[in-house]
Amino acid sequence: MRIIRKAAAVSLIAGLGLAATVAYAAEDPIKTRQAIMSSVGAAAGLGGGMMKGEIDYVPAAGKAAIATMRAASLAYGDYFPAGSDQGDTAALPAVWEDRAGFDEKLADFAAAAEKAVEASGKEGPADVEAFKAAFGPVLQACKACHETYRKSN
């Protein structure tokens, strides 16, 4: 039960932290997109942990992870204006050189996240298998974009 509460708290804190950080960083697109990616990382960590059985699956936590991904998918692409390729960013020049390809990857991410939201229903996916089916494609969309448009760590 402690793991369940901790997972739910992490998800809630990540969501609230995203809102506060985005508001603070609104005038700096690099900081804003980094804040959004921090929330995506938290949601991916929670979701991945539940998919692997490292964290007990809880429908509400699954729904929170999916909702975080959906919110990020709707906003993220707005924070790559011309000139924001300079500075402390993990974005590769390919984002600006192949904007149509980047926008296509963002559309794939948004579509996968929307399908996951639809599959999650009111309470969240009923069990871990339903969660895997909904959340797995979202993670794959993230990975596909990172392969081309993000610097390797």
Would you write up a description of this structure?
This protein is mainly alpha-helical. It has a single domain, classed as Cytochrome c/b562 (Four Helix Bundle (Hemerythrin (Met), subunit A)), CATH 1.20.120. The protein has six helices and no strands. The longest helix is centred in the N-terminal third of the chain and has 24 residues, at 29-52. It is elongated, with a radius of gyration of 15 Å. The relative contact order is 0.15. The mean pLDDT is 89. Residues 1-25 form the signal peptide. Keywords: Electron transport, Heme, Iron, Metal-binding, Signal, Transport. This is Cytochrome c. Pfam families: Cytochrom_C_2.
Percent helix among the residues? over 70%
**What spatial form do the alpha-carbon principal axes imply?**
elongated
Q: Number of domains in the coordinates?
A: 1
Query: Low-confidence stretches at least 5 residues in length (pLDDT < 50)?
Result: none
**CATH 2nd-level architecture:** Up-down Bundle
Tally of individual helices: 6
Q: In total, how many beta strands?
A: 0
- Radius of gyration based on Cα positions: 15 Å
What structural class is derived from the secondary structure elements?
A: mainly alpha
Largest sheet: none
The H/E string reads: HHHHHH
Distance between the termini: 34 Å
Pfam family, one: Cytochrom_C_2
Signal peptide: 1-25
Organism: Roseibium salinum
Protein name: Cytochrome c
